[in-house]
Amino acid sequence: MRLDRFLSETTPLTRSLAKRALKNGEVTLNGEPIKQSATQIDTEQDEVKFNGETLSLVGLRYLIMHKPTGVECTARRGLYPRVIDLIDLPKAERLQPVGRLDVDTTGLLLLTDDGQWSHRVTSPRHRCAKVYIADLAEPMEGSDAEWAINQVAQGILLDDEETPTQPALLRFITPLQAELTLTEGRYHQVKRMFAALGNHVNALHRQSIGDVVLTDDLGPGEWRELTQEEIASF
């Protein structure tokens, strides 16, 4: 690997800033100052230091986060903090949400810099089940609840859509709280489905994706690395 590319992969430096750091003598290769940006290095054997700090490549990462409300799943800086701002890892900006949650939606969020793995999780072909808990504005019980459950099981034609939603599973925890299990991910799908049922979602929380479940030991804003078993489950 070229030395300037290695520096851009392992530090906040861009390629142009990496070249400047090399010219300024801020980089050593195996203990010797080096200024040639095109120098080829062995990333496993050679020791590269930047301002005295040993550098190493960052491998693929797979994280689970308990996303709090008021945080955006976006790379751009805007009105709200970003989920990657909550992650204290090198090159955190490379991590991408695996399926987004709205700024006011909480719960399980997966993040990775492995694009192929992310595609496996989100691809409609894999029909990965996602479980949401919705707090409703209006109570639904009795025949109203039964009607809603049947509608969701059959599929609902949402506004501005040409095909109905895939069959989904709805159950009511209480008249004002429902659990909805989906195998697709249309834009604002949960909120739009309840709107089509004549209700409004006051709060939305994602509890699980596939076999990965958000547990109580992970508080809002906290994250951890996925286990090998969780990664392989998709």
From TrEMBL:
Pfam families: PseudoU_synth_2 (PF00849), S4 (PF01479). Its EC number is 5.4.99.-. One of its GO terms (molecular function) is RNA binding. It catalyses: uridine(516) in 16S rRNA = pseudouridine(516) in 16S rRNA. Residues 1-64 form the RNA-binding S4 domain. It comes from the Bacteria. The keyword RNA-binding applies. InterPro entries: PsdUridine_s_RsuA/RluB/E/F_cat (IPR042092), PsdUridine_synth_cat_dom_sf (IPR020103), PsdUridine_synth_RsuA/RluA (IPR006145), PsdUridine_synth_RsuA/RluB/E/F (IPR000748), PsdUridine_synth_RsuA/RluB_CS (IPR018496), RsuA_PseudoU_synthase (IPR050343), S4_RNA-bd (IPR002942), S4_RNA-bd_sf (IPR036986). Keywords: Isomerase, Lyase, RNA-binding. Coiled coil: none annotated. Responsible for synthesis of pseudouridine from uracil-516 in 16S ribosomal RNA. Belongs to the pseudouridine synthase RsuA family. This is Pseudouridine synthase. The lineage of its organism: Bacteria, Pseudomonadati, Pseudomonadota, Gammaproteobacteria, Oceanospirillales.
